[in-house]
Amino acid sequence: xxxxxxxxxxxxxxxxxxxxxxxxxxxxxxxxxxxxxxxxxxxxxxxxxxxxxxxxxxxxxxxxxxxxxxxxxxxxxxxxxxxxxxxxxxxxxxxxxxxxxxxxxxxxxxxxxxxxxxxxxxxxxxxxxxxxxxxxxxxxxxxxxxxxxxxxxxxxxxxxxxxxxxxxxxxxxxxxxxxxxxxxxxxxxxxxxxxxxxxxxxxxxxxxxxxxxxxxxxxxxxxxxx
Length: 226
What we know:
Blueprint lengths: L2 H10 L4 H6 L6 H12 L5 H11 L14 E2 L20 H9 L1 H12 L3 E3 L4 E2 H4 L2 H10 L4 H7 L6 H14 L13 H7 L1 H21 L5 H5 L1
Parallel strand pairs: 1-2
Antiparallel strand pairs: 2-3
Helix pairs in contact: 1-3, 3-4, 5-6, 5-12, 6-12, 10-11, 10-12, 11-12
């Protein structure tokens, strides 16, 4: 029934006036009124009681997956975290060997670790695509084409601009306070003078970030052993 009828019915059943008045402050007045009637109607048949109980139980809202808004490289360098040491290759020798010996594969891995939530350039390409094999081929071709043609055909992937955009994407993903990790302040000079070491650093930091997220929230080893 309607809320006023439920209140009247609760009053007829002897529910205290204060409880009836408190219904107006309830988050769901109708549900609270039904529960009040059930509580005070001792002669209510079981089938009707069960039906009213069903009405008083609210179905939980369906769980909705939190949508991650994409972040573009336009926001690169606006974070709060500092970069690590560009020349700290010995921190993870395996990464240095991987990046140095299989650079194309390492770029694909970096794209996956950055993830599709980071978009790159004016076309807003997701990082896994921008660092994928097709994009790498376009970057290599840009060195064989005339500079003007390459700049018009694929400006985001043209020559060293490709490396700069990857550096920006990593800075966005890792919430870095600058685009270049140094020692060169300008990203263009950074990738020109220290390209290998810079990519090793980017891979190391992305790897650490992925590892920390995969273990976040897991119980301590001591607790797991119990």
